[in-house]
Each structure stands twice: as C-alpha cells, then as structure tokens.
Amino acid sequence: MASIGHGLMIKFGLAHQPSPEKADEWARSTRELIRQGLSQELAGEQAAKRLFTDYKTRVYASEADTIALLLQQAGDKK
Question: Domain of life of the organism in this record (predicted)?
Fold first, then answer.
C-alpha cells in the first residue's frame, strides 16, 4: 500500500511527498472542513490548497486515491 505522502502527492499534483507531519496537518484540516459541512472531495482540495505550496504543479499519469482513502491512510477509520 502506498504511503499517505505518496497518495497526497499524486492526488494534488505536488512536486514532493509531504512530510508525515504535513500529511497529518492536511488530515486534521480536511476533517475539520468536513465537520463544517463541506464534501470530502472539496474539503480535501481546500486543505491541500492552503497547506501545500506546490499544489497542482505536477500532473502524474497515475490514478489518484479518493479523499476517503487518504483520510483512512492518515488514521481516520471512520
């Protein structure tokens, strides 16, 4: 199974895999935005735009994981 950092890199077109701490910060921010009423996909996108300076700087020829799977990889088993 790919790491959360790799999944985030593919999903959001990042130049590098985020650190485990940055991935955890993304997961916390995404879960908070979901609690505020955003859909999982929109919440994940908004959190990524805010946290990753290299957001959408690359395009990978790989299928990206869903936000739900990325959150699960980050430790959210809900």
Answer: Bacteria
